[in-house]
Amino acid sequence: MKQGVILKEIPPYSPDLNPIEHVWSLIKNLLHKLYPFLFKLKDEEGVKRQLQDAVIHCWELLSPDIFQRLAESMVDRVQAVIEAEGWYTKY
């Protein structure tokens, strides 16, 4: 304790407990595969609209099974984070 301040060590943010991070990774992969030209465009406003439409399209391509599996994995994810004391897991 220095200057009357008590420091407490806390684990970093855990994307393992936020399955949407996995979904965004899948969408990013689809964007690179289906819309590679978007990453080379310069017109900010035009790109923004095209990117928005492309993300929506990629989201719609995702199987509902993906979301089901992610939801079902939450118990295992929480247990893995507990066992890792908040640090990295296989997820």
Question: Short summary of the structure?
Answer:
The protein is 57% helix and 0% strand. It is an all-alpha fold and 91 residues long. The longest helix has 18 residues, at 44-61.
Q: What features would you describe in this structure?
A:
- With 91 residues, the protein is mainly α.
- It has one domain (15-83).
- It is built from four helices and no strands.
- It has helices at 20-34, 44-61, 64-72, 74-83.
- α1 packs across α2.
- The longest helix is centred in the middle third of the chain and has 18 residues, at 44-61.
Whole-number average pLDDT?
Answer: 87
Largest sheet: none
Task: Tell me the Rg in angstroms.
Answer: 19 Å
| Cα separation of the termini | 36 Å
Instruction: Give the total of beta strands.
Output: 0
Anisotropy-based shape = flat
Strand residues, percent: under 5%
Number of H- or I-type helical stretches: 4
Give the low-confidence spans. none
- Helix- and strand-based class? mainly alpha
List SSEs in N-to-C order. HHHH
> How many domains is the backbone divided into?
1
Helicity range: 55-70%
